[in-house]
Design a protein that fits this description.
The chain has 223 residues and is mainly beta. Helix content is 8%, strand content 56%. It contains two helices and 22 strands. The strands form six sheets. A four-stranded antiparallel sheet has the order 1-22-21-20, with no helix packed on it. Strands 2-3-4-5 form a four-stranded antiparallel sheet, covered by helices on one side. A hairpin with a 5-residue loop joins β8 and β9. α1 crosses α2.
């Protein structure tokens, strides 16, 4: 693994050439300042970026209208769906759905067994989220507004404090904070497998431009 940065990170997202990081700096006055950095994974070089580039790559074409309604655009996960709608999820369980023009058409608190869901990944007409406090992953239908499938939870040890989820080529990658593992779910048959294991907690997995990026407790690394 190659360590890319060990700064205080507010958020990290993929873009076409690598990742964009929202860096958090606390000034002497106590005020928190956010700046943006891109890292080109092929050139292996960081450079300064802009808030606009970060928002566009996170929320899509309608980012201006979406972020005006959100206010807090940093602490949420977002995914652009196949129909160009955007799903936004906070760790509190609050979920919002925006159409391609940035109009909010549904919002609510999504929970499983009184535990808030967080994270969001898209699979055709479904959304996948993690439930950290219930050690499971759920598949949610925005059309019926129902959880239609759960994997893990109860007495299962498939997932231990899962904190984020991504979908690449119909394989879900789930970062488990407590077990230090990335585990996968193959959406063709829902088989759960180990993918990577680390020596410290993992928060996020990103695949971009044929490279793999992980955010660990000690910093951001390229595998």
């Amino acid at each position: 693994m190659k360590k890319l940065m060990d700064i205080d990170i507010a958020d990290i997202i993929p873009f076409s050439k690598g990742i964009i990081v929202a860096r958090k700096d606390t000034l002497k006055s106590g005020e928190v300042r956010i700046s943006f950095i891109t890292y080109d994974v092929k050139l292996e070089r960081p450079s300064q970026s802009t808030k606009g580039a970060y928002l566009f790559n996170k929320f899509g074409d309608a980012y201006e209208k979406i972020t005006e309604q959100l206010g807090d655009y940093l602490s949420c996960d977002a995914v652009v769906l196949p129909n160009k709608h955007v799903a936004v999820a906070y760790k509190t369980g609050e979920l919002g759905l925006f159409d391609e023009k940035g109009t909010l058409y549904w919002t609510g608190d999504l929970q499983y067994r009184d535990c808030p869901v967080s994270g969001v990944a898209a699979e055709k007409k479904y959304l996948w989220c993690v439930v950290p406090d219930n050690n499971c992953v759920i598949r949610y239908s925005p059309v019926t507004e129902k959880i239609v499938l759960r994997i893990g939870g109860d007495s299962s040890t498939a997932f231990l404090n899962p904190v984020s989820i991504t979908n690449y080529n119909d394989v879900l990658y789930i970062c488990n904070h407590q077990s230090f593992k990335i585990r996968t779910i193959d959406l063709k048959n829902f088989t759960v497998s180990d993918y990577k294991e680390f020596e410290e907690p993992i928060y996020r997995y990103i695949r971009t431009n044929d490279r793999e990026i992980v955010e660990l407790e000690s910093g951001v690394y390229m595998l």
